[in-house]
User: What shape does this take?
Amino acid sequence: MHRFPNEFSELFKPRVSLRATAPFFAASDLIAPARAAASFALLERHLAPALKPLVRAIPPETIANQTRNYQERLPKTVRNRAADIDGTRSKAAKLAAQIGLAEMLSSPSYFAFAQMLAGRKLDPAFGRQVLRYGPGDYAGPHTDHHPEEPRARDGYFDLHLSFANAAAARQLLVYAGGGHLDRVVDVAGPATIAAYRLPFWHYTTPLEGGRNAARWVILGTFLYA
Assistant: This one.
């Protein structure tokens, strides 16, 4: 596979019963292994050079400035590499266009798939981003709640397409159910499609595996219409 398909529906195996009914949904059996490996190779070969480190460490003052027991307040922490692929000017956007990724994410079947999982109408203008997790990379506990943004304060929708190599042994998505962080899904398989009805508490554990372990995430962020 030298390019991503023009239509998203050409990448995965449709399942009539597929529908998200909870804040978080993941399926690992929708994309054939050969397609998953080819997608990973395309991203690794062409887009990796355009990524930039995304690193937010734990601020020391979260401990040093604590004056009472159980006063912990942890901001979102993260370590991976990322790039926006919206528009046409950035290096990452140009590379995404060259390998057909931009066209696939603009296809009617991609938008229809996202809208089906969201369960409600979505704004056709949405954000696109790619992430790459290497060994030990993670995203700490956070909610993805944006109360200062009028159109996002009541929630929004994320669609993640994930592709990992054979060296990636495990990476868990932990999310809240019934008031506790007690729901767990391994997202380090060859191909995972995940839907997020945000906001809710969740985090991604450090990627486990060999020194060459890697997991790509193609992320679409949608506001509700």
Q: What stands out?
A: The mean pLDDT is 94. The CA atoms of residues 30 and 177 lie 25 Å apart.
